[in-house]
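Why should sequence recovery work at all? Because a backbone constrains its sequence more than one might expect. Tight turns favour small or flexible residues, buried strands favour hydrophobic ones, and helices have their own preferences. The token representation captures these environments compactly. In the example below, the structure is given first.
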């Protein structure tokens, strides 16, 4: 329920409220990649760059649906840029997926 409510708040551009709702969802379902992905995206949109990077790096990139893969990489790269890590390792250093460019 918190995940769906957080998504609705994010779509309505109420990112502060979305962070609170998705934070509650993250506490309840901390193993869910969907929750962590939405929570990380909301943190980045709210301006919490470091926290957003930390949460997005916990997401298994291989389990991210193709329809939201662009948002995952964009938000992670943008947050890394905003905290000054322009030559960072990227989203997932151990990724062996050919789409990562590290195969």
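From this structural description, the recovered sequence reads:
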């Amino acid at each position: 329920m918190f995940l769906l409510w957080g998504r609705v708040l994010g779509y309505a551009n109420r990112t502060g409220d979305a962070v609170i709702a998705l934070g509650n969802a993250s506490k309840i379902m901390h193993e869910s990649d969907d929750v962590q992905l939405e929570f990380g995206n909301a943190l980045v949109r709210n301006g919490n760059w470091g926290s957003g990077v930390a949460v997005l790096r916990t997401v298994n990139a291989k389990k991210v649906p193709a329809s939201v893969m662009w948002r995952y990489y964009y938000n992670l790269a943008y947050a890394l840029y905003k905290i000054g890590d322009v030559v960072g390792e990227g989203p997932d250093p151990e990724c062996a997926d050919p789409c990562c460019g590290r195969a």
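A few observations help interpret the result. The mean pLDDT is 83.
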